[in-house]
Amino acid sequence: MTLDADWAERWVRRAAEAVEAAKDELTELDRQIGDGDHGENMHRGFQAVVARLDAAAADTGSDTAAPGGSAREVGDVLKTVATTLMSTVGGASGPLYGTAFLRASKVSGRPLLDPSSIVALLEAALEGITTRGKATVGEKTMVDAWSAAVDAAERTARDGGDEVAVLRAAAEAADKAAFGTIPLLATKGRASYLGERSRGHEDPGARSTALLLGAAMAAALAGPGGAA
């Protein structure tokens, strides 16, 4: 399986579809312990990302060229995601996800990713989120899902798993960790104001993290042309 800039773009487009399908769910989760705008903010942000990718493809006449006509790298796509989310997503999600994708873009400046490169991408994203949000594991935030994804990806790559196996491990771990936030006490962000009442609710950022990483795996399975 080739994880190149085309895969990164498939990832983003599938992420946009996943967020759109889960917009109401994310909104309801955030209504329970936050501002109630996570679904709409994420939807608006990823729709803007897709629009930018469409515009870039129209400008170059190709979906495989970077500005100036050179071959794209994975990092080119991720940087577009980062800058767009930072400028269009409100609340905490824009800066956090924007920083995650920006850090990931800086370690993905290559035409193809191998298993170790995927681990580096996920590690960089997690580092960006923890640096920006000052959160740690167990505080009922998206860090819980990202950290679980990184740990699973590292183990799978170390055990000789290929690119799809690494992405699958990351996605499944993030999904499990998102559900695992339900009993946790929130000690960061707006949810922390609820104290004990924050228990019993899934963290919306952890859920959207699982959606994004699930989209990365699906994009890898789909391959060129988008058919699974």
UniProtKB/TrEMBL annotation:
Keywords: Kinase, Transferase
Biological process annotations from GO: glycerol catabolic process
SMART domains: Dak2
Residues in DhaL domain copies: 6-218
Biological source species: Antribacter soli
Record's protein name: Dihydroxyacetone kinase subunit L
GO molecular function, one term: glycerone kinase activity
Pfam family, one: Dak2
Superkingdom to which the source organism belongs: Bacteria
Gene Ontology cellular component terms for the protein in this record: cytosol
